[in-house]
Write a structure and sequence with these properties.
By secondary structure, the chain is an alpha+beta fold. It has one domain (2-162). The protein has helices at residues 2-18, 52-69; strands at residues 28-36, 44-50, 70-78, 81-90, 93-104, 108-118, 129-140, 150-153, 158-160, 172-173. A ten-stranded antiparallel β-sheet has the order 3-4-5-6-7-1-2-8-9-10, with helices on one face. The chain is globular, with a radius of gyration of 16 Å.
Amino acid sequence: MRILRAALPFLLCAGPALALDMPPRKAGLWELKMSMEGRSMPMQTFQHCIDAATDKAMNDVGGGMRAEQCSKQDMQRSGNTITVDSVCNISGATTTSRAVVTGDFNAGYTVKVTSKREGGPAVPGLPAETNMTIDAKWTGPCRADQKPGDMIMGNGMKMNISDMKGAMPGGMKK
């Protein structure tokens, strides 16, 4: 749970930059490795079992926020690269983000997000400027004991994003 709490603020800042209609990922088990530049936090690794519905649901989570909170959402495609620039107001702070996504949503992709937050109250553990990289690799079908939406953290903690609607702790299990 500590890993998720440490990573969650960074994922929330990246969310607006990644909320636009991204290409669907191949169904199955994806391994994601997340690292933060200049942070003492070690690289976080987790697995995510998806199907078309859960992949779309994850994309839609950020979609609802962009209309209300983002004054800019610009996505450009060039070959196998997608660049998303956004300016969003999150909890009284203006967050300007750029996400560059390269790769193939069937085998593997990399997301590099730079984000700068100005104004609003200080958020413990969340610096004003972040540089995050997510490397994702499709590893095959989900395991027999997994259902779409299951996320398995590096420490073995398991949660399902479909169970997390509204209350993060209620969706966690081990």
